[in-house]
Specification:
Helix content is 24%, strand content 25%. It has helices spanning 71-84, 98-108, 127-137, 160-163, 195-204, 221-229, and strands spanning 11-13, 35-40, 52-56, 59-63, 89-93, 114-119, 143-148, 167-171, 174-178, 184-190, 212-214, 234-237. The chain has an eight-stranded parallel β-sheet with strand order 1-12-11-8-7-6-5-2. A four-stranded antiparallel β-sheet has the order 3-4-10-9, with no helix packed on it. α2 runs parallel beside α3 (127-137). The longest helix has 14 residues, at 71-84. The mean pLDDT is 93.
Amino acid sequence: MNIDLEISSPFMNAAGALGFTPPARWSWPEPPGAFVTNTVSLSARTPAQTRALLPYPGGYLLHSGLPNPGFKSVLRQHAAAWGRSQLPIWVHLLADKPEEIHAMALRLEEVEGVTALEVGIPPQAQPGLILDLLQAALGELPVIAAVPLNMAGQPWLDKLPALGLRAVTLSAPRGSLPGEAGVLVSGRLCGPGLFPQVLAAVKNLRTLGLPLIAGAGVYSLPNAQTLLQSGAAAIQLDGVLWR
């Protein structure tokens, strides 16, 4: 697999699907090539006060606030398990400031078992900040940009190859649905209804010249195989792992 990363299988979990450490068992569809952690931010994030899981035809919207105990606490609780893991660990980072990403990336270079960084994009970030965040993560560890599907056609993507990134994950897009009393709830969209979008994004973004990881909308083995045959270098699974 020409992804220039330490993975032995094209299958792995998506950030937020399985916690901070690899589970004892993985049954679908084959042993994973890497484990992607839940989102990690420099400071602790509490759950959203209006947490919600709202179904719609073809999937569901998840609004959680991306809670986590903060970078130092995550290391205290999970770094030892990462070092013992037989799977390469990809830590998924999120920050609003480049200096926060840089500080976490530097520290993770010293953590045994961590082989790559996947950098999430804040929902309202402008192209200049997005590129600065990705640049700040670069160092000794490979960096993967987690690009939401709703950003897959934006012009700034053409600048990613020059940054020195190793891959792009096409991750869950964001959307909104009416919740209680008709109040709009925004969050990540998951479900098999996203498959046509991720397939189109893989085909359209092959011109970037970076390995593409299909990280949304994969809920069947035939769909995964179609993506791999269409140019995806790897597949990330989200809600299908919860069944």
